[in-house]
Amino acid sequence: MADIDISAAAHHGEVPGLKHHFDDAEQQYDTSTLGMWVFLITEIMFFGGMFASYTIYRNMYPGAFASTSRFMDVTLGAINTAVLIFSSFTMVLGVRSAQLGRKKPLIVYLLMTMALGCVFLGIKYVEYHTKWVEHHIPGPGFHYADAQYVHQAQILFFLYFAMTGMHAMHMIVGLGLVGTLVVMAARNRFSKEWYTPVDIIGLYWHFVDIVWIFLFPLLYLIGHTS
Amino acid sequence: MTHPVVPVRTYALVFLALIVLTVTTVAVSKLELGEYNFICAMTIAVIKASLVVWFFMHVRNATSMTRLFVVAALFWMAILFVFTLSDYASRGWLPKPSWW
Hints:
The complex is a heterodimer of chains A (226) and B (100).
Chain A: H1 25-60, H2 62-68, H3 74-99, H4 103-133, H5 150-186, H6 196-221
Helix pairs in contact in A: 1-5, 1-6, 2-5, 3-4, 3-6, 4-5, 5-6
Chain B: H1 8-29, H2 35-56, H3 64-90
């Protein structure tokens, strides 16, 4: 099917979505982008706290760290990294389609992004399930083969679950947001002139991707040779 | 709005670069490089994150104000890490005072 120009939804010659307190669409767009970045900075600081505690405990207990990193599935982690990068690619193509006012590709790319997000969470579930079966969940049921590290290993598994868990939570929120975009796009809410939500939620999606780009080497790759 | 539409080719190249870097970081992690394993993994992660920020998050075409905020985020992260780690790293450097 040919691309449908959704800018036809713009009526009366007005710029759709332009709030009266902005001079023009350009100013409104820049303001929205900046606002989203401010939110993302708070998110960076939020994850930053966890990355800092990870760094501290890794330096405090290098032996326990090396021993826990053997239980991370590098293959699944790498596949998930590729899946997330691919989802960022489809997301950015979705934003591009919105820029060009093409409704159908926009919806297709957003749905692809959601599908890839679900694949990521599915693989994450498999990994969590393995940890559950192996009694690697910190708490009274925790079992660890190497008795000397049984306490320190719990700290590192706790960090693993806290960091990947918060990341997965952000993915779930992202799926809801992208789903909302699909509904809005289907209702012809976006046009060449106004597609700010697509752009802004795209920023959020890429941010969540970046968090994983750092989580993957830190949790899966480092220390598994030593 | 007058935002330049980036060609699909650019995005595709960035995507390919990100996949190649992911494969590289996994391959490098299999080698025994001691401290360099960490340095290599983090360098590659920073390059990947920069590619995403610059191209996918459109900082390349963003206003100076937005760019300033992105740099501010890095600066605050630096404060978080430098101040916290300087505490942990410097513990035990000085002897306990006699009145302790």
